[in-house]
Amino acid sequence: MKPLNPVTLFVTYQGEQDAHFDRSYYAKKHLPLVKASFTRYGLLSLSVFYPEINPSGTIAICECIFRDETAISAAFNSPEASAVMKDVIQFTRIVPVRLRAIPL
Hints:
The two termini are about 25 Å apart. This protein is about 30% helix and about 30% strand. The chain is globular, with a radius of gyration of 14 Å. The protein is an alpha+beta fold.
């Protein structure tokens, strides 16, 4: 069996302190949608972080752990990805940025 090489993908939301970001919708609706949509492609876990102090900058960070690089590609190229992306407008107007974590 091939060894597990998990890959971390961060989805960040950057903006002013008063930028609209509905944390309740994000936690109760969007993240379950992401989990339901991408787990079958190799999403292993999700974690969310909200910086405590934000005069402007990072509003939220979602840490997505995928089985491997192939799983990330499969998830974001899947038929379900469209619904996940279209749902963003329900909780913010901020365009999410995806960043791949690479160990130093």
